[in-house]
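hey so i finally got around to running the thing on that chain from the lab meeting. sorry it took forever, my laptop kept dying and i had to restart like 3 times. anyway pasting the input first so we r on the same page abt which one it is
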Amino acid sequence: MDIRKVYATRYILPLREGGSLPALVEADDGFKYVVKFRGAGHGTKALIADFIGGVMAKVLHLQVPELVFIDIDESFGRTEGDEEIQDLLKSSLGNNLGFHFLSGALAFDPLVNRIDPETASKIVWLDAYLTNIDRTIKNTNMLIWHKELWLIDFGASLYFHHGWVNWEKHIRGTFPQVKDHVLLPYATKLPEMDNVCKRLITDELIEEIIYTIPNDWLTWKENQETVEEIRQIYICFLKERRDHSELFIKEAQHARNALI
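ok and heres what got predicted. didnt touch it at all, straight out
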């Protein structure tokens, strides 16, 4: 999988949204990126969720800023005066995750911005598939850039991996949180998009995504599993959940009918 690697050269400013303390950073290719740091609250698991969600969104022909692996070395951010940010950068040496900065983008407003049923249904499908709890009216995590809809921030997806115990039971979870999805009222093509999405999210794609995740993102002190065992759990979860998508599709349709 062709994911570019760049090197952070300049810390521009923190983006104090939520607890992850992302930041706007310039890299050695001359572009600016919104960087999610491995040293933030949820560690590399949030980066893994963001990476999987971002790549899958692209495969479903949804707009996502370019993802890059962005390397941070010991010299980066030394001039930053904020001790909290300095500590974050010191604990984030190595591979982090960056998204190309969409300069001038505006937050998506469901009362202002229109979205077609196919796109809305694809996004609801993907978020229900990945159990993304964070695309609500309070925090849409979508932008309008050059009059197009762009998805950002899948970091709250795959919440099973924060506990990791009894992960199998989450595979067939119906994801009742879909009732709060900001695009659910517009997702009138869920059965049709279910077929489309399942056809695009192939076994080969899932395996390629999981094996592109850096090894050091999968080395967790609290887990007994090896890196290879962790990869296989992700692969099993994603394949099996896709194959039982009728469970979360029915939940989404039921929740949507309740809104009407």
